[in-house]
Amino acid sequence: MEIGSFTLLSPEDFSFNFNNNNIDFSWFLDMENGNNKKRGRKDFEEDLVNEKSGFGDILSSILMLDEEAKQEQEQEQEFQWFTDSDQRTDFFESGYNEKFEEINGFFDQFESQYSEMKQLDDSRNKRARKSGLTDTTAPANIVPVGSDNVSPSQAATGSGQQRRLWVKDRSKDWWDKCNHPDFPDEEFKRAFRMSKATFNMVCEELEPAVMKKNTMLRDAIPVRQRVAVCIWRLATGEPLRMVSKRFGLGISTCHKLVLEVSAAIKTVLMPKFVQWPDEIKTKRIKQEFESATGIPNVGGSIYTTHIPIIAPKASVAAYFNKKHTERNQKTSYSITLQGVTDQNGAFTDVCIGWPGSMSDDQVLEKSAFYQRATRGYLRDVWVVGNKGYPLMDRVLVPYSHQNLTWAQHAFNEKIGEIEKVAKEAFARLKGRWSCLQKRTEMKLQDLPNVLGACCVLHNICEMRNETMDPELKFELFDDEVVPENNIRSPAAAQARDHIAHNLLHHGGRTTSAGFL
């Protein structure tokens, strides 16, 4: 501790100051005046105590002054520190601003250089495309980044050519042979279930939706090859490993192409090729059915089939198919596909994707056709179904009870001919597109697009009179269950009885004696 110097006071000052502090120092004055009178020991001790307390107050005052001086010094130091801090902050801010300006200048320079390089690459690519030159150092097969079994990529540049991505070499001999103009049409049809002309038409329709642009690293897969991968997969039902070998593409790439092209077919082609007929077409369909069976006002035939699937992770019981499980002797799961066909077996309405545990009448109630029928949009039109559907307005079904009359037998026989149209259409659908006959590796949410694509392609083949190989014939099993409430419209029941009566008396007895 540092103690500051102070000036010694005179006896008068002591007397003045200390008297103000109620301290008696009169004995100093007695000594100066020559008073040598001796005092008692008791008085002397009291004076000594008073003297000590006075010196203690002096020391306390001195310490207080010293403490105040230290506080003032600390305050000055703090003020000086704040001043220095402000100077340092100004210094750092000036340095930061300078660095920020330098970084901005560097970024602007980098951006301008990048723009120049991009323009240079674009100009090179344009010249390369115009000249039609190919990079001789590139591998024979170039597949998209991310395909399976791809070797480590290496960017290579040819002399003045665009960059290429080095990947695993795969053989495309089979597809190149099929895509050659001299490839026989019969063999092409055997592989893709349609002629070259129909395949070309499908490619032209889908080109705006599925075409991809070339990049700096690789060329895009051509539209024809994209469509061919999807159609061959749907037609054969072969695993993706076989698709990869046939077309020289990665497995994941083939799977992606199947989903993309199927979605494009459903989005682009379904509104054109699967639609409810207008009045003119409906009139023609009625005439065709009436001339064949004698039943008037029939605008279509309805049928529901089941597509096997892998057991889903959620709602397993909803997709459990009891009929298939009993017939196949193993647990089966499925989704439904309901369709209305015209007299030629082309679909005019489809309802896809409801769980396999639902009956035919439950699926019917979920369909767009049912909504049109109940809202009165279908006038003077019957759609014929089997015993699994209820008798209701706009839906005509056969008699399902026992002890039928001659008229009812005749009606059931004619109705069976119309039912057969839809059933055979579904048999051709499953026979032509074999992927519908067995479970696939696709996710449940992807199946509606695939099934919709199969229905669209079926209609295209039917409308273009594409014949089907007899070896591809598929046999459907009748799994319909008669609903409990089979008659839901008394008016429809009366109309059915009237039609049956007219068939017997005006159309002749068409049943055989075996029904009696």
Characterization of the model:
This protein is of the alpha/beta class and 516 residues long. It has 16 helices and 7 strands. The chain has helices at residues 11-20, 26-32, 41-131, 173-178, 185-192, 196-210, 223-236, 240-247, 251-273, 279-293, 322-328, 360-365, 368-374, 406-432, 447-463, 490-505; strands at residues 155-156, 164-165, 298-309, 333-341, 347-355, 382-384, 395-396. β4 and β5 form a beta hairpin. It is elongated and about 145 Å long. Its cofactor is a divalent metal cation. Belongs to the HARBI1 family. Residues 148-162 have a biased composition (Polar residues). InterPro entries: HARBI1-like (IPR045249), HARBI1_dom (IPR027806).
Summarize the structure.
The protein has helices at 11-20, 26-32, 41-131, 173-178, 185-192, 196-210, 223-236, 240-247, 251-273, 279-293, 322-328, 360-365, 368-374, 406-432, 447-463, 490-505, and strands spanning 155-156, 164-165, 298-309, 333-341, 347-355, 382-384, 395-396. It has 516 residues and is of the alpha/beta class. The longest helix is centred in the N-terminal third of the chain and has 91 residues, at 41-131.
Structural shape = elongated
Structural class: alpha/beta
Percent range of helical residues: 40-55%
| Major sheet characteristics | 5 strands, mixed
Distance between the termini: 134 Å
Query: Which residues form runs of ≥5 with pLDDT under 50?
Result: 1-25, 27-39, 133-160, 508-516
Radius of gyration: 50 Å
User: What portion of the residues fall into strands of 2 or more residues?
Assistant: 5-15%
Number of helices: 16
Overall strand count = 7
SSE order in H/E notation?
Answer: HHHEEHHHHHHHEHEEHHEEHHH
Mean pLDDT: 79
